[in-house]
Amino acid sequence: MDHILDTVIIGAGPIGLACGIECEKAGLNYIILEKGCLVNSLYNYPKNMTFFSTSERLEIGNLPFVSIQDKPTRSEALEYYRRVYLHWNLKVNLYEKVENIQAQNKNELSYTIKSNKGSYNARSVIVATGFYDVPNKMNIPGEELPKVKHYYDEPHPYASQKVIVVGAANSAVDAALETWRKGAEVTMVVRQEALSRSVKYWVKPDIENRIKEGSIKGYFNSEIVEIRDKEVDIQTPEGLVTLSNDWVLAMTGYTPDFDFLKKVGIEVNVEEHRTPCHNYKTYETNIPRVFLAGVVCGGSITNKWFIENSREHAHIIIEQLKEVLPEEV
């Protein structure tokens, strides 16, 4: 690209789109680069997922989010953010993965953003990459087997199968209940002594009752230590248990792409939950005019930032760019 942009936004999730909307309002010249489809992380959520938040708390760009129930579904969210994108005529390049950010002119504070399809020159960069791309690995023998899934889509493939679900939060609970209701023999393996307190309140009694009655087997204070083609070893308080098994759904959570952050020069505070270094008021990183927006700000604490409490990052960041780029606005 010959001309220089005011900013390049990395990630076309809800917060990346919100940043684009603020750029449109401010008259900034920008582009949003997304390695997958529009709101790619939401697209990869389970097909039957229902949000914890109500629809109005997921709104961006002053467009009402109307859903059938007060808590919208994944399909409703995909439709909503697609309409936001069209309404604001946002400048988004899909299926274009950013590979690196390099300082081009330190005196004028400009950067070259390289992707798998080209390069862009910009006076600033906004990293809104979320955390859904890199699963937390169990780091045990057999985790690389095809039967181990770190992403859960829908229950049908697991009908009449022996399924182990690893995890204690909403993703694990949803996977366990949905696959059980489609005829799977389900076992949950939980490292803690109980399910997470963050489990959706309308779901928690259901899973607790299924475990209590024995419909779903639960191993607490337990961990999988090895996975084989047809078996799984679980270390429990009572000793090692070996179960016959067809599938392992490792709902162990996800992390930001720390390798990418480090590659582009954003420092990560290892002692503070691997939080990317940034100003907590301005969201500017240790690199001048390179900002973080959205859930990526939380590092490995992935339950700190959500759409509803990080959508304001967009306005805060663009207001600063309006001040530091007065001639271009």
What can you see in these coordinates?
The two termini are 20 Å apart. The protein is globular and about 65 Å long. It has two domains: 4-134 and 254-324, FAD/NAD(P)-binding domain; 137-250, FAD/NAD(P)-binding domain (3-Layer(bba) Sandwich). The model has no long low-confidence stretch (mean pLDDT 94). The protein has 329 residues and is an alpha/beta fold. The chain has helices spanning 14-26, 40-43, 74-87, 170-181, 204-213, 258-263, 307-310, 312-324; strands at 4-5, 7-10, 30-33, 92-93, 98-105, 110-115, 119-122, 125-127, 134-135, 148-149, 162-166, 185-189, 217-219, 223-227, 231-236, 239-244, 247-250, 254-255, 268-269, 275-276, 290-292. Helix content is 23%, strand content 24%. The strands form six sheets. The chain has a five-stranded parallel β-sheet, with helices on one face.
Brief synopsis:
This protein has 329 residues and is α/β, with parallel strands linked by helices. 23% of the residues lie in helices and 24% in strands.
Question: What's the arrangement of secondary structure elements?
Answer:
Elements: E1 4-5, E2 7-10, H1 14-26, E3 30-33, H2 40-43, H3 74-87, E4 92-93, E5 98-105, E6 110-115, E7 119-122, E8 125-127, E9 134-135, E10 148-149, E11 162-166, H4 170-181, E12 185-189, H5 204-213, E13 217-219, E14 223-227, E15 231-236, E16 239-244, E17 247-250, E18 254-255, H6 258-263, E19 268-269, E20 275-276, E21 290-292, H7 307-310, H8 312-324
Parallel strand pairs: 1-7, 2-3, 2-8, 3-4, 8-21, 10-17, 11-12, 11-17, 12-13
Antiparallel strand pairs: 5-6, 6-7, 9-18, 14-15, 15-16, 19-20
Helix pairs in contact: 1-8
